[in-house]
Amino acid sequence: MTLDDCNTRLQRLARELGLDYYPVDFELVPQNFMLEIAVYGVPVRMNHWSFGLRYIHQLLHQHMGHSRIFEVMFPGDPCRAYMMDTNSLAENALVTAHVIGHADFVKRNGLFSRFMSMAGGHILEQSAARAHALEDAVLRHGQRAVETVLDAALALEPHIDIHQLLYRPPYPEPGEPAAPPEPPPFRERYQRLPGETSPPPASVVHRQLPPHPETDLLWFIAHYAPDLKDWERDIFLAVREEAFYFYPVHACQIMNEGWASYWHARLLREADFLSQELYLQALRAHSDVVRPYGNEQRLALNINPYHLGFAIWEDIIDREGLDAARRICAEEDDFGFIRNYLHAKLAEKLDLFSYQARADGDTRVVSRDLHAVREAILGAKYNYGAPCIAVERMNDDFSLVLRHDHSRDGRGLDLAQAEQVMQYVARVWRRPVTLHTVDFRGVARTMHVTRQDVVHTSVRPA
Questions:
Q1: pTM for the full model?
Q2: How confident is the model at residue 407 (pLDDT cuts 50, 70, 90)?
Q3: Would residue 132 count as lying in a domain?
């Protein structure tokens, strides 16, 4: 049996079992191409030095669950899937079934549908076009100028407001003051008494920007940075658009990988056209993908999303049926999925716990309480994994004030990293920038950076 034949039969079986998905374009690629996709996020993307660091990381951490099988799938219409050409036929049969499960999830899930309707379903073509536009900007304005802008945009990549529209209009202009209401008869007579004067006419209130704390930092800088040029604004908006596209992948990772793992297991189990030897090889690959622990470990400090998602979906389908699972697939993201469907009995069965890692390397179990376990799983997903930072105000001199809402994200900032990001922001804002935050001990700090990249950090009084 060839991979193409296996692919055709698996897709036919998937349709018979009720899977409804966008068409999938499959392609076999070499390992180095796959690594570049994992690093850049897409095959062709805006070039930046930071991706070199990600490449080194991926060399050490390329995997699918706890296995060495490697695949990348891009949601869209059609979906694009890349498979390693060094995988065996059994491994790529599993990958094919896994990708079909992803494609079904993407078409059903409301969050994916919402963001795809805004960002479009052709990420690879759109990303390549942005990369070419960036190359043109380098030719016109120079590598250093373009890299300065891209440094700032990528440093703020997770700082979007996912509740807003992708193509969001600027703030409305302030309107004329409303006409004062007619005074009641008693007030009118009172104002005509000797010594009494009418109140002064209403004046136009000074426009405050932003009119409320603004968490979409990429959008705000793109629209309101006082000296940003059009090509610089385009870079910020391009990074923001890609962040919108990838948000559902981040927010539904456990659900999505679990759903794909459930369906690859079921498709392989019901694929009577697979030889017994091929099926057993694929089954061993499945066991590697969804096992809770890596290598020979018997204790896991990191969640394998394939394992956790697979276990929860199996539990849901056993208890409530496939129709209920499909409804949950459409309505939830990982936050609702974990909080509503990871119950105490299942958490105990999976041996889940929250832990604390100390600076001296010591690690200890903190709690097996269900609420603590759920929040430990979800903590890194909140706010796209980034601290909650908002633009508090833009002053009359165009200096910018940012505030970190540490009470929402529950942690302080790494000050060294925050200083670097502040320098990036100040270089494109081109006015002083101030950030109110706390450090890892919870001590209030104020960071101030000028256009000369000099960062001043002070302790704020309690």
A1: 0.83
A2: confident
A3: no
